[in-house]
Amino acid sequence: MIELILHGGPFMVPLFIASVGVIAVAIERSVHYRRATVDGNTILVELETAIRDGGIDAARDVAEQIPGPAARVWSEGLAHSQLPLPLLRERLDGVASAEITRLERHLPHLEVVAQVAPLIGILGTVWGMVTAFGGVAGGLGQGIGVDGEQLTSGIAMALVTTGAGLAVAIPATVVHHYLRARVDRFIEQLEQTMRDFILTLSTGASPKHAQAARSAPTMRDLTDVRESKKSAAAR
User: Fold this and answer.
1) 146: buried, middle or exposed (CB in 10 Å: 19+, 13-18, 0-12)?
2) Is the pLDDT of residue 9 over 90?
């Protein structure tokens, strides 16, 4: 196996580093998402009970003890519950966007590996074929026949680097899509959490919020908010 890898030449070094990186990111993100996963309905029941029994401050203490992005939205919202509803919505949007950014950490790296690894493999293939044909041309030019060692070495490099590039890119693509799906579920939970928070606050905490909630527009989709912010930054 080691001898086979050595046939790939220097192109195997970045592919090996990329494969280790894919494994590390997959493990780190999976552990992070597992710790951050908390049932939204459970949080809602606990915090509604805390608000009813002890008020906003007691509910905030409970929220700060719960892990995950949804609990952070509750904690931040409760800490600024005195704000007018439009400003409170903006505050929640900012917290949710920051949590999504934290959840998406390292995912772009997986996407880069999935795109670049096959290209490194192709580059190794081209280099190997150049080496192989160099062995043919060199031997024939000297009148000694084909340099079989250089020919086989070049073909081996071409095949090994192609296979290695695909062997790294395919798992990176699968892992990226899996983790991306996990992040999308967290985004859905955050959207629901903000709706639950506004509804809870408007019906049980403040008549001013209740009146504003009835006249306020529907909660904006987090993905659209983030895309609009990116577009504005690009302009």
Assistant:
1) middle
2) no
Say if CB 69 and CB 186 are below 8 A apart: yes
Using alpha carbons, select from 99, 80, 111, 84 the residue that is nearest to residue 183.
99
From 38, 43, 85, 36, select the one nearest 60 (Cα to Cα): 43
CA pair distance 78, 51, nearest whole angstrom: 10
- Ramachandran region of residue 68, left (φ > 0), alpha (ψ -120 to 50) or beta? left
Q: Classify 41 as helix, strand or coil.
A: helix
- pLDDT tens column, 54-87: 888 888 888 888 888 988 988 888 888 888 888 8
Q: Say how far apart CA 41 and CA 227 lie, in whole Å.
A: 28
Q: What angle do CA 90, 219, 81 make, to 5 degrees?
A: 45
Query: Who contacts 229 (Cβ-Cβ below 8 Å, separation ≥6)?
Result: 97
In angstroms, the CA 190 to CA 76 distance is 13
Map residue 38 onto helix, strand or coil: coil
pLDDT band at 208 (very low <50, low <70, confident <90, very high): very low
Q: What is the DSSP letter of 216?
A: S
C-alpha closest to that of 10 among 113, 127, 171, 150:
127
Alpha carbon distance 184, 180 (integer Å): 6
Instruction: Decide: pTM greater than 0.85.
Output: no
**Distant-in-sequence, close-in-space partners of 6: CB < 8 Å, separation ≥ 6:** 12
Q: Whole-angstrom Cα distance, residue 107 to residue 120? A: 20
Cα 235 to Cα 231: distance, rounded to the nearest angstrom: 6
